Amino acid sequence: MGGDHAQRSLKVLKPGGVLVSLLNVSDAAREEAKTRGIRAERMSVVPDRDGLVELAKLVDAKKLAVHVAKVFPLEEAGAAHAFLGTRPIGKVALAA
What we know:
The protein has helices spanning 5-10, 27-35, 49-60, 77-84; strands at 18-21, 39-42, 68-73, 91-95. It has 96 residues and is an alpha/beta fold. It has a two-stranded parallel ribbon with strand order 1-2. The relative contact order is 0.13. It holds the Pfam family ADH_zinc_N_2.
């Protein structure tokens, strides 16, 4: 689903900014970032129980809000994936 996410994101960053992506950043996007004085980084997240518990505490304390664009029944996983193609703002969730 990433496509040209890095090139699109670079358009809104000013020189000295940092693009942090969970997806791979293409060589072309890295070169464009470099010429514009923007740092492009890829980060990887490995969820663990302790981290998820801490996130849940922040949500419960209303210190972290998660915007859910839409919830789909598990049987409609294909429709959920198609919905992601519309580039919704927020998370898309599957419910059992």
